[in-house]
## 1
Amino acid sequence: MPYIAQAYRDKLDPYITQLADALAAEVVDEENELAYAGLLNYAITRTSLLVIKNLFGTKLKYMNIALLTGIMENVKQEFYERLGTEVERDRRRANGDVDVIEDFQEELTSLI
C-alpha cells in the first residue's frame, strides 16, 4: 500500500517529483505521448534493482524477486482500483454497458 507515514513522504517526495518532472520533460522533447511507457518502465526497473542492490548486494535471492514482483502487482492493482475503475464507471454510464452482461445479472446477484 502506498500509504506511508508523512515523514517518509516528506523525505522521498522531492526526489520522486524531480524524477517525474524529468521523465515528463523527455516525453515532451520526444513529441510522443506514449514515450513515457519505456521511460517509466526503465525508472521503475532501475530504482527497484538499486534498492535491492543497496540492501542485499548483487546476490539474487528468490525472496527478493518474489517480494518485488508482489509489490509491483500490488501497485498495479491499487492504481487500477483507485483510477481505472472510476474511468470505467464513467464510460459505462456515458456509453452503456456491454449488453451480454445482463445475461449474467441473475448469477452475479445470487453471489452477493
Note: The helical segments are 6-30, 36-56, 62-95, 105-111.
## 2
Amino acid sequence: MPVLEQLARRAFDGCRVLAAEPLGDGLRNSNFRLRLDAAPLPEIALRIYEHDPSLCQKEIDLGRLVAGAIRMAGSMASPFVS
C-alpha cells in the first residue's frame, strides 16, 4: 500500500489511505477502491495506468468531450499525466 498512500497524499493534500481494495481484473491497468481519512470524498476509485501513458490522456480527453451528455465521475488524474 505504500504506492497507493503516496498517490493519495499527492492528490489530496496529505490524506492517509485507511483501506485499499483491488477492483476487478484490469487487463492494461490496476483499479483500487480507496477509503481516505480526509479528502473531498471519503471513498475514491484509483486507476493506475501501467503501460501507455497516452491512454490516460485519451480517457481524460474523452471524458471532457462527453461530460455534458452523460453522468460520470470526475478525473483527478490529469495533473499526473506526463
Note: The beta strands are 17-22, 29-36, 43-49.
